[in-house]
Amino acid sequence: MNSSKPYVIGIDMGGTNTVFGIVDARGVVLASNSIKTRKHSRIEDYISELYEETMRLVRSIEAEGKIFGIGVGAPNANYFTGMIEDGVNLPWPTPVPFAQMLMDKFGIPVAITNDANAAAIGEMTYGVARGLKDFIMITLGTGVGSGIVVNGQLVYGHDGFAGELGHVIVKRNNGRLCGCGRTGCLETYCSATGVARTAREFLEITEEPSLLRNISVEDITSKDVYDAAMAGDSIAKKVFEYTGNILGEALADFTVFSSPEAFVLFGGLAKAGDLLLKPLRESMEKNMLSIWKGKVKVLQSELKEADAAVLGASALGWEAKPVNTATVVPPASAAPIAPQA
Amino acid sequence: MNSSKPYVIGIDMGGTNTVFGIVDARGVVLASNSIKTRKHSRIEDYISELYEETMRLVRSIEAEGKIFGIGVGAPNANYFTGMIEDGVNLPWPTPVPFAQMLMDKFGIPVAITNDANAAAIGEMTYGVARGLKDFIMITLGTGVGSGIVVNGQLVYGHDGFAGELGHVIVKRNNGRLCGCGRTGCLETYCSATGVARTAREFLEITEEPSLLRNISVEDITSKDVYDAAMAGDSIAKKVFEYTGNILGEALADFTVFSSPEAFVLFGGLAKAGDLLLKPLRESMEKNMLSIWKGKVKVLQSELKEADAAVLGASALGWEAKPVNTATVVPPASAAPIAPQA
Q: Which residues of B touch A259 (CB under 8 A)?
């Protein structure tokens, strides 16, 4: 670490809130705040507010001139190009060269990636994945995101978009319609919305009494299902078994790809604890190729939830380089393994 | 390259034959030969014959003292430990510390990995994957093997066994029994034996005439199905459509993992050409997440088949290090991304 620049800024852009904070090399969030992502229809205004509010924090801890870099987790953000490519839930037109725009405003190096990748970097730097060289982060929120770490490095792939495990097809026939336009994607079953969908389906195909019948069916959330299951509701418990079973099958399949030491679960649904984890682990082991049976851990993130998003993004800030990231593209040719004569 | 050691030895151990050759840095196989893998019941005798025959080649091209390293592709060979862990088709007990035994015999650094990984390294070094940093090698032989390259590096995973894509479950219900003991694995459908199984199934469920009915049903091979399809046989053509369709679905799913620039197909079945590739590409595109539609190439290996196995293994020889690989295990802890204060 450059001892004159001991801090990084982490920015987590969500569809509703943008959370940001100043973090030191030990992962302590020294100051944080948030603004509304959708308040401005011009991205320049959004960036201006973000700049003003962030600099207010910087001044509050007397960190002027001591920021090493800025790390950003944002939907569909591309590490290679610095672009936010497709902002489904954002109020301004995309693609936008977000890293470049932030760098121009702050005068500090910026690195961006998608939220799940930022979460993986956060876990590797400050969380339960510290010391792991091969693991897969699975974020279970409104959708299912993932960040894959191989040999200590995040997998970005050819174009920066690798690690969309929420869009592996887990039901080839009669699968649920996904936001991506296809059917049967993992995230239609194993996200918070997937849990609510499963509950609605289960309530429909049986007459069994359930606490969930007290809620208007289209208003049921995964939190309602969790509360009902904790209260002993049989249908709600079956919903978590069904969800854990599908996720376990998927994790067993993912294992053959990169042979991770662990999966790290994060996000609202991961907080369901054993309700989800017990059927998940059983299903994963049952479906695991024999060489990996009993060998792959399933861990829950232990980062404080309020800090996790900012921490994950901030960890990327240590990777930010003082160059024009908007023009950094992966080199077209790889060095051959055989030394040249 | 150490100009005094301009050659590597490549050894490809198959269940039947072990092929070996001397290769230069440009990928020219200067001399090659083979021995029967199963001739000796003691591995020491196998290694002795391999040594004698290989050194005969070395002398024939006056390469004594000019061998940089030895690369080996062998079933279930572990790059990290140097062990052949589970030799299903081998006549001696496993696990064996194969890298160490070869190194003791030859006095030259040895690196080993499984056959599909060796093939991937060969393609990256000498073949169609030259210049690609992110690609996935799929070998379509008796089984389905794979070697995954991310950011120019082979993915070994936590334990050295990553990349078993032949064992992704593609049929969750009523899938075919796999050699691994589970059901529905990709390789039960998309290998040479999978093609023969599909042909037998198709012949059973219909009365449709077929050239394949001239062959005793249990003797049908993928080559027979290929020949029949090339002769216009309708059932045989449907077998390749079915196979290509399943493989295309699988490749679309694999794409979300590492976002490869290309898949490289190798092995007997890959030689079926458009019979397989046309339905495969159609199915892959149809099932692809929209951001990758039309963007991921499917390439066929162009290495001369007689040389390919030796070339792939030999390319690994350039990575061999003059240390006791039998004790090289991956470090337990990764360097954190955040620089230490």
A: 156-163
Q: How far is CA A190 from CA A73, A172, A276, B40, B257, in A?
A: 22, 16, 10, 52, 17
Output phi, psi for B29, to 5 deg.
Answer: -85, 105
Whether the per-residue pLDDT at B3 is higher than 90: the answer is: no
Helix or strand (DSSP H, E) at B72:
strand B67-73
Contact B256 A165 (CB under 8 A): yes
User: Cα torsion at A120, A124, A126, A127 (round to 10°)?
Assistant: 70
A88 reaches B (C-beta below 8 A): no
Determine phi and psi for B149, rounding to 5 degrees: -115, 125
Q: For residue A169, list chain B residues with Cβ-Cβ distance below 8 A.
A: 249, 252-253, 287
The residue to which tokens 């887990």 are assigned: A170
Q: Which residue has the tokens 């994950």?
A: A312
Neighbours of A200 (CB within 10 A): 15
Contact A156 B318 (CB under 8 A): no
Weakest mean pLDDT among A82-91, A150-159, A294-303, B192-201: A82-91
If one counts every other C-beta atom within 10 angstroms of the C-beta of residue B316, the result is 28
DSSP summary character for residue A219: G
pLDDT band for B57, please (50, 70, 90 cuts).
Answer: very high
Question: ipTM score of the complex?
Answer: 0.89
Position B224, amino acid? D
Instruction: Check CB contact of A59 with chain B, cutoff 8 Å.
Output: no
pLDDT digits (tens, 9 = 90+) for B277-318: 999 999 999 999 999 999 999 999 988 877 888 999 999 999
Chain B from 297 to 316: CB within 8 A of any A CB? 315
Give the pLDDT confidence score for residue A37 in this predicted structure. Answer: 92
- Please give the single-letter amino acid code of residue A67: I
What DSSP letter does each residue of B54-69 carry, written as one string? HHHHHHHTT-TT-EEE
> Model confidence at A94, in pLDDT bands (50, 70, 90)?
confident
Q: What is the pTM of this model?
A: 0.90
- Average pLDDT of every residue of chain A: 91
Q: How confident is the model at residue A323 (pLDDT cuts 50, 70, 90)?
A: low
Closest CA to A137 of A308, A265, A256: A265
From chain B, the residues in CB contact with A340 under 8 A are 1, 25
From residue A177, give the alpha-carbon distance in Å to each of A138, A202, B13, B250, B285: 21, 17, 46, 19, 18
* pLDDT, tens only, A138-170: 999 889 999 999 999 999 999 999 999 999 999
Q: What is the pLDDT of residue B87?
A: 64
Residue position matching structure tokens 């490519």: A85
- Type of residue numbered B220: I
Sheet of B17-24: strands edge to edge? B29-36, B17-24, B7-13, B67-73, B110-113
Q: Which residue of A has its CA nearest to B122?
A: A337
Cα A298 to Cα A250, A253, A277, A284, B89, distances in angstroms: 13, 14, 8, 10, 33
Q: How far apart (Å, rounded) are the C-alpha atoms in residues B307 and A264? A: 43
- Looking at residue A268, its pLDDT comes to 87
Closest residue by Cα to residue A67 from A27, A126, A119, A107: A107
Q: Residues B85-101: pLDDT tens digits?
A: 876 668 888 899 999 99
